[in-house]
UniProtKB/TrEMBL annotation:
This is Helix-turn-helix domain-containing protein. The keyword Manganese does not apply. Keywords: DNA-binding, Transcription, Transcription regulation. It comes from Pseudoduganella aquatica. GO terms for cellular component: cytosol. It comes from the Bacteria. It holds the Pfam family HTH_Crp_2. Residues 142-215 form the HTH crp-type domain. GO terms for molecular function: DNA binding; DNA-binding transcription factor activity.
C-alpha cells in the first residue's frame, strides 16, 4: 500500500496565530477517553479536531446508548451548544486524538474587531453546517444501501479533510456503531458491505477500506 496523504490542518494558517493568542489550547486524548460527558457544564468552549475520530452519543435513563454523530479531522465539537449550560451528549475518542480548544466568548469578541477573522470564522461555520446537513440527509434515507454508500463517501471526504482523495483508510468505528448511527441492524450493515465489496465498489480487509469505484458509490447513494 502507498502512504496515505496527510490531510491539512482543520484551521487555516492565518487563523491559528490569532486564535492561539486568545487562549487556544491543544488537548490530547487516548482511544476511549472522553472529551466531555453528557450533563457536563459547557464552560463556553468549542473544539476543532486536529487529528483522530470522535463519537458523540447519548444514554437514556434505562441505559440505552444512541450514536448521534461521528467527527473526524477538520470537524468541530460543541459548536451546536455554544449557548447551552450543559452538554446534551458525550464525546469519546475512537482513536488517539487531538483537539484545539477555544474560548468562544473571547473569539467572538475578537471577531467583532477583526473583519478578516470574522469572515474566516463564518466560512468555517458554513462548512460545518453543510457537513451536518449532508449527514442528516444520509440518516433520513429509507434505503439501507443508499445510507451505507453515502456514509462511506462522507467518511472518505472526512479522511481527506479537503485534500486529495486518500486511496484507503481505516474505519475508526465498529459496524455496530455504524448500524446504530444509521438506524440499521448489524446484519444489514454487514450484508451491504458485502454487496459493495462483491460489486467492486469497495475493498475491505479488517477495518481497512479502499474506495475502488467512487462513481458506483455515488450512484448507490443517489448522488
Amino acid at each position: 500500500m502507498s502512504a496515505i496523504p496527510t490531510p491539512p490542518s482543520p484551521l487555516p494558517a492565518e487563523l491559528t496565530g490569532p486564535l492561539a493568542a486568545l487562549g487556544m489550547q491543544r488537548t490530547h486524548k487516548r482511544r476511549h477517553e472522553f472529551l466531555f460527558h453528557m450533563g457536563d457544564p459547557v464552560y463556553d468552549r468549542f473544539y476543532a479536531i486536529d487529528s483522530g475520530y470522535w463519537k458523540c452519543g447519548t444514554v437514556s435513563l434505562d441505559g440505552e446508548q444512541d450514536v448521534i454523530a461521528f467527527h473526524g479531522k477538520g470537524g468541530y465539537l460543541g459548536l451546536d451548544e455554544l449557548h447551552a449550560e450543559r452538554r446534551s451528549y458525550s464525546a469519546v475518542a475512537l482513536s488517539n486524538s487531538t483537539v484545539l480548544e477555544f474560548p468562544i466568548g473571547r473569539v467572538l469578541q475578537a471577531a467583532e474587531q477583526d473583519e478578516a477573522l470574522r469572515q474566516q470564522l463564518q466560512t468555517l461555520l458554513l462548512q460545518e453546517i453543510g457537513r451536518q446537513h449532508r449527514i442528516a440527509q444520509i440518516q433520513r434515507s429509507t434505503r439501507a444501501r443508499q445510507k451505507i454508500a453515502a456514509f462511506l463517501l462522507e467518511l472518505a471526504s472526512m479522511e481527506s479533510a479537503g485534500g486529495p482523495p486518500v486511496p484507503y483508510f481505516r474505519l475508526p468505528m465498529s459496524r455496530t456503531d455504524i448500524a446504530a448511527f444509521l438506524g440499521l441492524g448489524d446484519t444489514t450493515v454487514s450484508r451491504e458491505f458485502q454487496h459493495l465489496t462483491q460489486s467492486g465498489g469497495i475493498s475491505v480487509q479488517g477495518r481497512w477500506l479502499s474506495v475502488l469505484d467512487a462513481s458506483q458509490l455515488q450512484r448507490e447513494a443517489g448522488q
